[in-house]
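Sanity check

After download, print the first record. It should look like this:
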Amino acid sequence: MPVTLAAAIAVNRFGLGARPGELDVAAKEPKDWLARQITNKSAFELTAPGLLTTRAAAEALSEYLQDLKVKAEGKAGKLSPEDQEEAILKPLKQLRDINISEIEARTQHALTTQTSFAERLVLFWSNHFTVSANKAVTLPFAGVFEREVIRAGMTGTFADLLAASTKHPGMLLYLDQAQSMGPNSVAGKRRDRGLNENLAREILELQTLGAQGGYTQADVTEFAMALTGWSMAGPRTQRLVPGAGSGDFVFVSRFHEPGPRAVLGKRYIGTDEGQGEAILRDLANHPSTAQRIAMKLARHFISDNPPAAAIDALANSFRTSGGRLPALHETLISLEAAWQPGAQKFKSPNEFFLSAVRLAGLQKIERKGIVAAYGLLGQVPYQAPSPEGWPDDAPSWAGPDAVIKRVEWAQGLSDRLGSKIRPEDMTRAALGPALSVRTAQSIARAESASQGLTLALMSPEFQRR
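Expected structure tokens:
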């Protein structure tokens, strides 16, 4: 069956870029090829040797913090400045190795998966619920958060995903929630600690309603009060919650601010974690949340400025399905705007890297090569600069310096593949009818196979999806 433009769009715009032969697989019925992925739980899974569970990650963090404590209490004081630095950096390296293993496993999976639309959805939602490994306490958790929360939640509801995200130690530590205490709680009255509003604010501003969603600073504070006591089991909190395993979500009643809360004009009673859970459920089902999620999905899959009709269709699907993610994703692939010819979205560095290696058909890249590529291109996984996640628009990624780095990396890949490759055939197999005559001619006229592949990777058709 001939490869159609729809097949090329399915694999490259919805997926992560075509591997050799993938356009032929999608050509029979591109929308069905996508639809089969969104309800298949196994399509979202990632398994690799050596990856830690949440509990193991929490234990690794505890060991690191204990090492720091021991050195701070005396041993480090007897060491030279150089040895003190080594004493601190050596245990930190162990946490970094955990994070790098997650990056490597995620990358290898993305390069070889046959369900790349499912993988793109994982990356989209992981960016929405950002946990960045930009500080020591989150280094071991960013990858396992994605595996145990995002991947596990892709066939459920947004409300369930939001609740699981909020309760995971990765999110609790990243947004400084684990030690938040109500000023009038039992512990708050006795300790020089207080309320932390970070998690409540980011849930309202970034994960649900949006900055224009109608909430006030008073709502942030009230929501933060409701979340006091939400913590993770560690050396200190395990004494307060007997039976909790390391890294488990725990509700510490001694931290919880007593009394009812009022958020968005609604009163929430209760004296335990149910108070925060009720607010989360209402936020998940709020019309402003439906609109925000719809906007983000449309912007990611259609264009930086998607049509209002597409956003409305997604928002309506979110509301009528009760936030069921498979229903939302099914609506996405039914949108006429998502299938328009002419690629609109400029690839992020990660998308460029993954699609280029998939085009080349490589099965594996060494760890050093993965780390070097992400570092050069400027988008290291699990290192988003803020809780807002990585940007999703062309101006953020299309600056002159960024483009030069893409050329540099593309030349390196092309040189590595050598002179035996047939760049025009490889590019046509990846882009199908989306490959223009002009670009095909440029590749064919290149002085070498390496130069031809570099031209292909830097072509307008490949840089956009």
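If your output differs, re-run the checksum step. Summary of this record's structure: The longest strand covers residues 230-232.
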